[in-house]
Design goal:
Blueprint (H helix, E strand, L loop, with lengths): L1 H27 L9 H11 L8 H11 L3 E4 L2 E4 L7 H25 L1
Antiparallel strand pairs: 1-2
């Protein structure tokens, strides 16, 4: 009996992962980066699997994507949120160069004495 509960839970989580991937793909496929409406997402989901947009779970997945900042709502449309990441290499180089300048500055001071 417990094994069937685990199987049911794993199939539900697999369904959610599949719906999540399809929602992101629907938003990404919109021409001109205008964003996708809820109707557009529903049509895309139905094209992948018939009747899936009638299940309430896709709205929960959409809400989680909004809450986790993977998607943003711009007007009445959903767009993919792209984070502004700086390269870690640039940060390390700037910190290293500052440390080198401090060490070089101390050496110059000690030489002058």
């Amino acid at each position: 009996m417990e094994a069937s509960k685990n199987d049911k839970a794993s199939t539900q989580s697999k369904e959610k992962v599949k719906v999540r991937r399809w929602i992101l793909k629907a938003v990404e496929d919109v021409e001109g980066n205008k964003g996708a409406t809820a109707h557009h997402i529903q049509k895309f989901l139905d094209s992948k699997e018939d009747g899936i947009s009638k299940k309430p779970e896709w709205k929960l997945v959409l809400k989680k994507l909004l809450d986790s900042c993977h998607l943003m709502k711009n007007g009445g449309r959903y767009v993919i949120h792209k984070s502004k990441k700086t390269s870690s290499k640039g940060i390390k180089n700037s910190a290293a160069s500052k440390a080198n300048k401090k060490v070089a500055g101390k050496q110059r001071i000690s030489v002058k004495k």
